[in-house]
Design goal:
TIM Barrel; nine-stranded parallel β-sheet; alpha/beta; 14% strand
Length: 396
């Protein structure tokens, strides 16, 4: 009997060839990045909406903070705060990784936790000497070795300005194929507010080149097939339209701050169509559009939706209000949307071609076609094809 097997993941391929049971694939998790101060102040905790949360560890947290804050089932990713070194690289010179280890142990962590190693990021859009790139990479490796020896759940973070630099960084860590790695996607650095603070990695307020998002995505498309033996936490790729692309590429975890930032800018998500609904008075308010009203009405009829049962008229009014409470409501909606959509595209786990077709339909399902995301989708599909191997297996 002749079979042709089209396989994306090399590990799965060998399990089939050897007649071994294929390991159950894990669905991708979208971690909601939350400000620690907001966790204590919000009336609705983000971990009640989504059981995967990312926080940045701080030294002022009390002993036992983790157990006092999260339920045992909550999956918490703890970031070590390396992002601060982009704008102020001089802080890395006096950074005490042993103090960070002590704080992790002091505040506690759960068995589901993922601990991000302390890392010295490498910015995009900034000319950087190759020796400086290597220096930062080696510092990240040193910090990882120290942390992982004390906290086994620690995972390394890969950085580089090019695909080869990122792969070189992976080799520096000397990882086995089972170890999860975090990859700095640099998508957040494709914005003017971020890059404007880090010319040459310092000098706040100076102008720096902003790398177009499609260029950064191209680098992600190229790097993911080369990491097919690792489980990848693609940092900063958890936004409404970024997360499904990350899932398509095989990422196992992503994180998002956009749900909160968009809420502050009076924007809420319609993940069914991959669209933003504008609620403010200064950014092209379109919430009364019939399509958006129908979408919100559908959500209000969903018993799992946080605002289930509220009238459409009242809900529409609240979403357009100013103030902290209305911002929090928009944020809750956005976080729930990301969780809901995460469940949707995880249904396509192991079937990237069908997921790609779903996304193509999503971004062409209204009167306005999302050409930018469709271009990214087509590039992602090309990347998938280039990493796919066809094997002819004869079974007697």
């Amino acid at each position: 009997m002749f079979h042709r097997l089209r396989l994306l993941r090399g590990k799965t391929c060998w399990y089939i060839l050897l007649g071994l049971p294929v390991e159950k694939k894990l669905n991708m998790l979208n971690y909601m990045s939350e400000d620690i101060d907001m966790i204590g102040k919000s009336k609705v905790k983000i971990d009640k909406i989504n059981d995967a949360v990312l926080v940045t560890v701080r030294g002022d947290l009390p002993d036992g903070w983790h157990q006092d804050t999260f339920e045992s089932k909550t999956k918490v990713a703890k970031d070590s705060g390396g992002f601060q070194f982009l704008g102020q690289p001089e802080l890395a010179e006096t950074f005490d990784v042993d103090e960070l280890i002590h704080n992790h142990k002091r505040i506690g962590f759960g068995r589901h936790d993922t601990i991000m190693s302390a890392d010295f990021p490498i910015p995009t859009g900034v000319d950087m000497d190759k020796n400086e790139v290597i220096r930062r990479q080696m510092i990240s490796v040193e910090w990882y070795d120290r942390m992982q020896s004390q906290i086994r759940q620690t995972i390394p973070v890969l950085h580089g300005q090019t695909v080869q630099e990122i792969l070189n960084h992976k080799d520096m860590y000397g990882l086995n194929s089972e170890k999860m790695v975090a990859v700095g996607s640099n998508l957040s650095q494709s914005t003017v507010p971020v890059m404007g603070r880090m010319k040459n990695g310092k000098m706040r307020g100076q102008k720096a080149s902003v790398i177009p998002r499609n260029v950064i995505w191209q680098r992600i498309f190229e790097i993911m097939p080369d990491l097919d033996r690792q489980e990848v936490f693609l940092l900063g790729a958890g936004g409404m339209n970024a997360a499904p692309l990350a899932a398509l590429l095989g990422a196992k975890s992503v994180d998002a701050t956009s749900w909160r930032l968009n809420a502050k800018m009076f924007a809420i998500y319609d993940t069914t169509h991959g669209r933003f609904i504008r609620c403010g008075s200064k950014n092209g308010n379109n919430i009364m559009n019939q399509r958006h009203q129908e979408f919100l009405s559908m959500r209000l009829k969903d018993e799992d939706y946080p605002f289930y049962g509220m009238s459409l008229k009242d809900f529409t009014k609240v979403l357009q209000l100013e103030g902290a409470r209305a911002t929090e409501i928009r944020g809750i909606h956005n976080a729930w949307e990301l969780k809901k959509d995460n469940e949707v595209y995880n249904e396509y786990e192991g079937d990237p071609e069908r997921l790609a077709k779903m996304l193509e339909k999503r971004w062409t399902s209204t009167n306005w076609t999302d050409h930018q995301n469709l271009k990214l989708l087509n590039k992602a599909k090309e990347c998938m094809k280039s990493s796919t191997r066809e094997l002819e297996v004869y079974i007697n």
